[in-house]
Fold:
Amino acid sequence: MFRGKKLIKVSEDPVVWDFKGDDVPLPPAFPMGRVPEGGWANGGLNAPTPEVQQLLGAFNTHFSAMLRALETAWQTGDSDALLPAISHMRGMRTEARKLVQLKLPDGSGKTYGPEFLYVEE
Structure:
């Protein structure tokens, strides 16, 4: 992705690989703003509305629960403990997709994004 080209073999003897293959286009992305230290609540003009705060809270809840589930899986060696973590990852994706479509109020054209803040149970 960094080079924007597919890695291909360009010589057999000696074997040489180079980034000379087809283009590797980057997918479209939202222009997410930089999350202020401590989260969007510390963002001055970009402090979240109650709607945005609800999405941030939902994301952070899923994120934290995912970390706890992963820790349980690592500590116990129980692979079934990964299932809740995967479920929370899906929840994070849902909330993150909503957040990155909400423009910051500062007029920069950038969007909100996940904070990745840990919250206790």
Summary: The mean pLDDT is 94. The CA atoms of residues 66 and 89 lie 7 Å apart.
